[in-house]
Amino acid sequence: MRSIAPFLLVAAFLLIAAATTCGAETPANTSGLPFLQIDTDYHVQFPDHIKAFTRISSSVDYGKTSSGQRIPVTTKVTHVVTVFTIRELGPSQWALLEHPSSLSDAATWNLQRTSAAKLNSQNIKKLQSTDDGKKRLEDLRRYAKNSVDTTQTWVNLAHAFAISPLPTEDTRPKISVNVTIGKRNSD
Fold first, then answer.
1. Nearest to 81 by CA among 51, 58, 118
2. pLDDT by residue (tens digit) across 76-100?
3. What is the pLDDT of residues 157-167, one digit of tens each?
């Protein structure tokens, strides 16, 4: 007959281990990124050589000059996702990021997430005090309601050179467009 002493010893060890760890709290963030919070949006900037969240589309069409001459017109649009929602933190500096499924939706997504961040009680109160502010508040609410299909990707954030919370104070973005129309000289 075999002795059950080794079995009892292992069982006792497991019971003691379970009893000592039952009340232990697990840290909220054991990753190498202690400043990040799950389900929070961040502006993440990657170096230019990392194109994982960038899509460049270009096209050639025809336009007319003021004299009516038909000329080719080249259009180039760069779509860059700069806002990500942290869904999970992994070991080291890995994080599960939520972002648009299609990189062509980058501008809609970025605007939707930044607008939602600005819809806080302090900004709402401030914006409701003026007619221009009320109009801006309507715009922010409309942008925040935009729907974008999303996906999630595990990313090593050691490759990001800037990670910052989204601004919660409303500043009207200024967009500038530089259009150059030129005629190529053919020799």
1. 51
2. 888 999 999 999 999 989 999 999 9
3. 999 999 999 98
Cα–Cα distance, 142 to 135 (Å, whole number) = 11
Question: Token pair for residue 70?
Answer: 């038909």
- Positive or negative torsion for Cα 31, 34, 39, 45: negative
Dihedral sign computed on CA atoms, order 125, 128, 133, 138: positive
CA distances for 43 relative to 64, 111, 145, 179, angstroms = 40, 12, 19, 28
Contact 139, 178 (CB under 8 A): no
Handedness of CA 172, 42, 105, 124 (dihedral sign): negative
Q: Give every CB contact of residue 33 below 8 A, 6+ residues apart in sequence.
A: 89, 93, 95, 157, 163
Residues 26 and 15: their CA atoms lie apart, in Å, by 19
